[in-house]
């Protein structure tokens, strides 16, 4: 029975990471997702006290975008993934993290021109967070 539980846990973690990648492009186009499924700094919903540690912070230097989530990384609570999505629904980059990683920081080089971009941060306990920004 333990193998079945481990399989289900692994499947849920992978599903969550895939869900984060798939939700953001749709979010970028319109906001048809139910309230409480995607969080932002300005709309943190039930996680209002988690904004500072969960909302992805973006730094731009030339064509390089750095996404950082100032969140502790432990076996039970950590940032699972960062994704960078263009306004036209293309995933420009993604990075998966592990509980053993010291920090949740991703660096992406951007090719071409993009007006609007979205940085995502998926926490294994506090859901999907999105920061919209322009270059």
Q: What's the structural blueprint in terms of helices and strands?
A:
Elements: H1 2-29, E1 38-39, H2 51-54, E2 57-61, E3 64-69, E4 79-86, E5 91-96, E6 104-109, E7 116-123, E8 127-134
Parallel strand pairs: 1-8
Antiparallel strand pairs: 2-3, 3-6, 4-5, 4-7, 7-8
Structure description:
The strands form 2 sheets. The chain has a 5-stranded mixed beta sheet, with helices on one face. The protein contains 2 helices and 8 strands. The chain has helices at residues 2-29, 51-54, and strands at residues 38-39, 57-61, 64-69, 79-86, 91-96, 104-109, 116-123, 127-134. It is α+β, with helices and mostly antiparallel strands and 135 residues long. It is 24% helix and 36% strand.
Number of separate strands: 8
CATH-defined superfamily? SOR catalytic domain
Written as H for each helix and E for each strand, in order along the chain, the element string is HEHEEEEEEE
Shape: globular
Largest sheet strand order: 1-8-7-4-5
- The appropriate CATH architecture is Sandwich
Jot down its keywords.
single chain, 135 residues, alpha+beta, Immunoglobulin-like, 5-stranded mixed beta sheet, 3-stranded antiparallel beta sheet, 2 helices, 8 strands, 36% strand, globular
Can you give me a brief rundown of this structure?
With 135 residues, this protein is α+β, with helices and mostly antiparallel strands. Helix content is 24%, strand content 36%.
């Amino acid at each position: 029975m333990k193998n079945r539980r481990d399989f289900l846990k692994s499947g849920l973690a992978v599903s969550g990471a895939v869900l984060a990648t798939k939700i953001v492009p749709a979010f970028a186009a319109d906001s048809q997702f139910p309230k409480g499924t995607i969080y932002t700094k300005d709309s943190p919903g039930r996680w209002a006290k988690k904004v500072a540690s969960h909302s992805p912070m973006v730094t731009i230097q030339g064509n390089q975008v750095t996404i950082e989530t100032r969140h502790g990384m432990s076996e039970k609570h950590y940032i699972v993934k960062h994704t960078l999505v263009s306004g036209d629904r293309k995933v420009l980059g993604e990075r998966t993290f592990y509980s053993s990683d010291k920090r949740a920081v991703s660096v992406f080089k951007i090719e071409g021109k993009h007006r609007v971009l979205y940085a995502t941060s998926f926490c294994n306990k506090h859901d999907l967070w999105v920061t919209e920004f322009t270059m």
